[in-house]
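Need C-alpha cells for this chain, all 109 residues.
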Amino acid sequence: QVQLVESGGGLVQAGGSLTLACAVSHNIFRDYMMGWYRERELVASVSVGGTDNYVDSVKGRFTISRDNAQNKLYLKMNRLTPDDTGVYYCDTRPAFWPWGKGTQVTVSS
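Here are the C-alpha cells for all 109 residues:
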C-alpha cells in the first residue's frame, strides 16, 4: 500500500514562505498526476511530465514540483496570507491513495 508522508509545515508570518515536501513510498509515484490539497481541496497539481496547474488563489505565489527519481513532491509557497492556513496533504489527482497525516501550515497576520 502506498504511504504518503508530508512535511515542512509550520507557523509563519504573513508575507513569509514555506516549502512543503511529500515522500511517496512507492515508485508508482512517477506514473501519476499528483496534487497538493489544503483541507482536502486541491490547490495545485503537476502532471507526470511536469505541467503544473493552480487554483486562482495561489497562482503566482505557489510552485508545485516533483522529483520522480526520489518519489517526492514539493510545494513552494511564497507571500503567504492567513487564508493559506490549513492542513496540507499530497495525493494523486484525483485523490485515491490513502491520505497521509498532512502538515499544518499556520499563517499569522
